[in-house]
Model the fold of this input.
Amino acid sequence: MRIELKKFGEILISRPAGREAFLAMSAYLIKDIAADEIIEIDFSGVKVLTPSWADEVITKVAEKFKNVKLLNTENATVQATLKTLREYSDLKI
Done:
């Protein structure tokens, strides 16, 4: 399953918006997906990503699924946010 984050916007910045995005994913995209299925999170088209938004989405997806792969992470804000999550939210991917 591939999750295209650009469907949630190009600028992903607030914790409440991230929480809302994760709830939408849980209800529609990842509702019936097995915990061991490969989940690809695609950052293409994302211009700005903050740690608060990503903590509500990326961290929770990584907690729920064992095989999470990150795609198109070349954007500087995506790289900085992932580094922050790995340091402070114990993100393992």
